[in-house]
Amino acid sequence: MYRRPGHARVVFALTLMLAGSAALAQDSGRGSSGKLLLTGGVSQVEGAAGGGLTPWAVIGGYGTRDQFGANAFYTRVDTGDYAMDSQGVLLGLFDRVEVSLSRQKFDTRQIGAALGLGRGFTFTQDTLGLKLRLFGDAVLEQDSWVPQVAVGVQRKRNDQPAVLAFVGAQSHRGSDFYVSATKLYLAQSLLLNGTVRFTKANQFGILGFGGDRRNGYRPQFEGSAAWLLNRHLAIGAEYRMKPDNLGIAREDDAWDAFVAWAPNKHLSLTLAYVDLGNIVIADNQRGWYASLQAGF
Predict the structure, then answer these.
(1) Long-range contacts: 21-27, Cβ < 8 Å, 24+?
(2) How many helices (H) and strands (E) does the chain have?
(3) Residues 116 and 13 sit within 8 Å (Cβ to Cβ)
(4) pLDDT truncated to tens, each residue of the chain (296 aa)?
(5) Can you tell me the distance from the alpha carbon of 226 to that of 277, in angstroms, rounded to the nearest whole number?
(6) Pick from 52, 100, 59: nearest CA to 240
């Protein structure tokens, strides 16, 4: 039986991961942050490098092919009826492999009381991510139409199996598999990304995996576009399809419009307006998203 690790244990693992990557980079002399500003993306809500909603094919951090890179992040999403906090760390190795570890905490506020769960009832989900760049270079290969392509997996575990079973979810744990393609057009200051995710997750996994309506993997499209206003500032939008597996309530797709600011390679701030659609008995879940990222 899976036992959710204590919060202190996860935070300790996150700290060790980031500190260890920094020490490795300094000892090897490879932590010089060779990528262009903002080209490593920001922290996606489940921990991968990309936009706020969807992963990109880029490897997180600013390490190039002979360097390490790492990020730590904290994200807050607030729609009024619900709130979610996500925090985690990411390690990028040689611009080839990315490993991430994150925790999402979803607060049901008054909706929890209306559902009989209690005011402020929370779902907590831990996500372990792995991404591998297959081919292409989103930035350097400007003379080629071929995008950078990566594959990834996000393994998720939720701490409320009994509640999830009651609402119709088939499991409290599951894995998302995705393929992403990313291309930066430097002359136009435009970044485009497309991701296909194979998933059974309900509301990103917060409401479990699979359901009484459907329990198979289904491909879902995710897209991002970002315009670099200057080397420190970018604006853009994202769209993420979601499966509709539970009979208790429909699940809508999500989208956002964002602005990302990076004063340097060690800090970035992302603000967004986000629309998550219906979540259980609450329609029109719209609100604000803020994410702070630190790293090298």
Answers:
(1) 21/68, 21/69, 21/70, 21/91, 22/70, 22/296, 24/68, 25/63, 25/67, 25/68, 25/69, 25/70, 25/296
(2) 3, 14
(3) no
(4) 444 444 445 544 554 555 454 444 444 445 556 788 888 889 999 999 999 999 999 999 998 888 889 999 999 999 999 999 999 999 999 999 999 999 999 999 999 888 889 998 999 999 999 999 999 999 989 999 999 999 999 999 999 999 999 999 999 999 999 999 999 999 999 999 999 999 999 999 999 999 999 999 999 999 999 999 999 999 999 999 999 999 988 899 999 999 999 999 999 999 999 999 999 888 899 999 999 999 98
(5) 22
(6) 52
Alpha helical stretches, state H, 29-132: 109-114
Q: How far apart are CA 41 and CA 159, in angstroms?
A: 29
Identity at 43, one-letter amino acid code: S
Residue type, 232: H
Determine the Cα–Cα distance for residues 48 and 69; give it in Å rounded to an integer. 13
For tokens 């790293």, what's the residue? Answer: 295
- CA dist., res. 39 & res. 190, Å (int): 11
Rounded to 5, what percent of the chain is helix, strand, coil?
A: 15, 50, 40
Q: Record the tokens describing residue 81, joined without a space.
A: 């009826």
Structural contact between residues 74 and 89, judged by C-beta atoms closer than 8 angstroms: no
